[in-house]
Design a protein that fits this description.
Elements lengths: L11 H13 L3 H14 L4 H13 L6 H12 L5 H21 L3 H19 L8 H15 L18
Helix pairs in contact: 1-2, 1-3, 2-3, 3-4, 3-5, 4-5, 5-6, 5-7, 6-7
Length: 165
C-alpha cells in the first residue's frame, strides 16, 4: 500500500473549503478523502468530522448503503455535543429513508423516516439558541412521508420517544 502524504495544519481551513466544494459538486468520495486527510492531522476537528459524516451519507443509495451507514454511525460518538450527536444520528436515518424512497422502496423508507422524525424531535429539545435545523429536517421528513403511497403513509404523528437520562 502506498504511504499517504500528510497535510500541514496550515492547510486545514482551505482543505475544509475544498471538501465542501466537492460535496456541492456531487463528488462525496473526494470530499471524504479530504476529510480523512484533515482528521489525520486534527483528529477532533468537528467541522471535518461533520463534513465526513455528510460525505459518507451523500453516498447512500449507491452500492453498500448499509456499510456506508455503519461508517457514518461510528462518527456520531466523536461529535462534541449531545445536540450534534442526536441531530446527525437522525440525519443518517433520514438519508437512509430518502435513499430507499429514491430506489422505490417506500415501505422500508417509511420506517427510517419515522425514526428520523423521532430523532429530530429529540434534537429540537436540545437545540442551541438560533439553530432550528432540526425543525427544518423534521418538517422535510414529514412532507416526504406525506408524499409516499397511501398504504405506507403515517396517519398520525409518531409518538415522542422519551429516553431516560
Amino acid at each position: 500500500m502506498l504511504e499517504l502524504k500528510r497535510l500541514s495544519k496550515d492547510a486545514v481551513p482551505s482543505a475544509l473549503a475544498r471538501a465542501e466544494r466537492y460535496r456541492l459538486l456531487n463528488e462525496p468520495a473526494m470530499a471524504e478523502s479530504i476529510c480523512l486527510d484533515i482528521l489525520a492531522v486534527e483528529p477532533d476537528n468537528q467541522a471535518a468530522l461533520t463534513m465526513l459524516l455528510l460525505a459518507i451519507t451523500d453516498q447512500f443509495g449507491q452500492e453498500g448503503t448499509g456499510r456506508h451507514a455503519a461508517r457514518a454511525q461510528e462518527l456520531i460518538q466523536r461529535l462534541g455535543d449531545e445536540y450534534s450527536r442526536v441531530y446527525y444520528a437522525a440525519l443518517i436515518q433520514e438519508r437512509r429513508g430518502r435513499a430507499l424512497v429514491n430506489s422505490g422502496s417506500a415501505t422500508a423508507a417509511r420506517d427510517w423516516l419515522v425514526e428520523a422524525l423521532r430523532g429530530f424531535e429529540r434534537a429540537i429539545g436540545l437545540h442551541p439558541a438560533g439553530n432550528e435545523d432540526a425543525i427544518l429536517r423534521w418538517n422535510a421528513c414529514a412532507r416526504t412521508l406525506e408524499r409516499l403511497p397511501a398504504d405506507t403513509r403515517v396517519t398520525h404523528e409518531p409518538e415522542t420517544v422519551i429516553l431516560s437520562e
